[in-house]
Design the sequence.
């Protein structure tokens, strides 16, 4: 009985989504690898577009990104339009922040373009004097 009440409370609170996989992910790894070559500059988005093709429904794109370990927020305004703003972190000897912006048509709710960037050693940048 206690178990049923706990699950009901979790569901009602909106805490019912499962955490993303914590292990290595091929998409995150591919973006970090490309990011190491292009520090601070936009990445080649081909690897993302293979997973999230232009025209894919927004809800499906979000689900795929979250399966890859990204945390996503929709409706984020940007200079290029409204985007699904997705971030992931890779902790190795250096910490990487991976940012993928999936721009979408707000009426049709379909992906229209993609931007990606990797920030290198974010922990040290945040904690330095």
Sequence:
């Amino acid at each position: 009985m206690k178990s049923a009440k706990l699950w009901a409370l979790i569901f009602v609170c909106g805490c019912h989504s499962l955490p993303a996989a914590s292990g290595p992910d091929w998409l995150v790894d591919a973006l970090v690898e490309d990011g190491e070559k292009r520090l601070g500059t936009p990445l080649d988005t081909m690897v993302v577009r293979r997973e999230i093709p232009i025209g894919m429904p927004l809800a499906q794109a979000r689900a795929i990104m979250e399966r890859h370990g990204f945390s996503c927020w929709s409706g984020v305004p940007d200079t290029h339009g409204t985007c699904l703003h997705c971030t992931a972190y890779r902790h190795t000897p250096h910490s990487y922040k991976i940012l993928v912006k999936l721009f979408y048509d707000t009426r049709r709710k379909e992906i229209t373009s993609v931007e990606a960037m990797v920030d290198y050693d974010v922990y040290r940048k945040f904690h330095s004097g």
